[in-house]
Structure formats: C-alpha cells, structure tokens
Amino acid sequence: MSAHHDVPHEKTFAEDLAARTGIDVRKCYQCGKCTAGCPMVPDMDYTPSQIMRLVQVGDRDAALGSRTIWFCASCFTCSTRCPQEVKIAEVMDALREQALREKKAHPRARKVLAFLKSFLGSVRRTGRLHEVGMVMEYKTRARDFFSDVLLAPVMFLKGKLKLFGKPVKDRQAVARIFERTAGTK
Ligand code: SF4
Ligand code: SF4
C-alpha cells in the first residue's frame, strides 16, 4: 500500500518561486539583516524577513495579500546585505506579479499601480518626472482626489526620486526605451 508514492509532487510556494525566479528563499536563515536595513518597514505589515519566512512555510495568502510587497520601494538594500545572497527585492517583485495574477493583492496595490502608471506616463511624455503633472495624473487614476498627497506614493515621499519639470533633449531616445520595453511586463 504505497499509493501515496505515486501522487505527483505539488510544488511548494518556495519551490514555485525558485522555478520562476531562480531565487531560493529556503536559504534564508532569518538573521534579520534585510529588515534592519529596510527604509519601508514602518509602513509594512510584515517585515522583509517575515515575508521570506511566510514563503518558506508556504503561507501564500499572507505573503501575496500583504501590504509589504506594495510598500517595498525596490531600493535593493536588502538584496545587497543578505549573507545568504537571497535576492529579497526581486522576490518582492515576483510576489507582486503573482498577487496580481492570482487576484490576491492587497487593496493598496491599486494606488501603487496608479502611481507607477502616472510615473511612467510622465517619463514617457517628457523624459523626466514632472511632479505636479504626475500627482494630478495619479489622483485621477487612483480616484484619490481627497486623500492627502502625503498618504500617496511612498517612493515619491522617501526622496528616492528627483523631480524636474523640463523635458529632456532627446525625447526620441525615451520613446525608443518605451517601445523596446513594451510587452516585457
Ligand atoms: S538578510 Fe537574508 S538570510 Fe537574513 S533574514 Fe533577510 S533574507 Fe534571510
Ligand atoms: S528593496 Fe524593498 S524590502 Fe528591500 S530594503 Fe528596499 S524597500 Fe525594503
């Protein structure tokens, strides 16, 4: 009676992630260095190391439904600090994609995506980020006319982005970048 040996092995959450990204979260030994260096922890519901743990234990709903993956600013501090060379920032990106695909994303995702579209819209039009135009577009996309701008895009507020109003000279080059990257996401 060894029927269970014939049951095909269903990939665990961590295995599935490793197959898609080449990153093995099982190597994480919970040292907490990623969390210690992450500037976004105060806005997160789980710390980056806790997200790695959720992946290890297979808690898909908690990881994919977390605020954390949407508040991660992709600064890569965690990835550069990890002694186990776990690429945490890239994991966050893969989890965002999976959360959207499986329709498990935190409600906050809508605002972050609206912000990113506005950000890209501004860069596409001018080659640079135009603060006022982008905030107006963000508010239109996110139907977010009444919230304080300070509650809006985290990357914007953390000073990660430099803000300029004037278009760059070679706008055709910017157009080519968008043409080449179209469809890669
Ligand atoms: S720094 Fe690396 S090993 Fe340490 S908790 Fe974060 S992911 Fe795990
Ligand atoms: S990439 Fe994301 S999770 Fe990593 S340190 Fe930066 S904000 Fe934190």
Whole-number tally of structural domains = 2
* Quaternary structure: single chain
Q: What class, by secondary structure content? A: mainly alpha
The overall strand count is: 0
How helical, in percent, are the residues? 40-55%
Bound molecules: iron/sulfur cluster
Main CATH class of the largest domain: Mainly Alpha
The major β-sheet equals: none
Described by the principal axes of the CA atoms, the overall outline is elongated
CATH architecture assignment of the largest domain: Orthogonal Bundle
Low-confidence stretches: 148-152
DSSP summary: helix tally? 11
Write the CATH homologous superfamily of the largest domain.
Answer: Alpha-helical ferredoxin
The helix/strand order is HHHHHHHHHHH
CATH topology of the largest domain: Fumarate Reductase Iron-sulfur Protein, Chain B, domain 2
User: What is the terminal-to-terminal distance?
Assistant: 47 Å
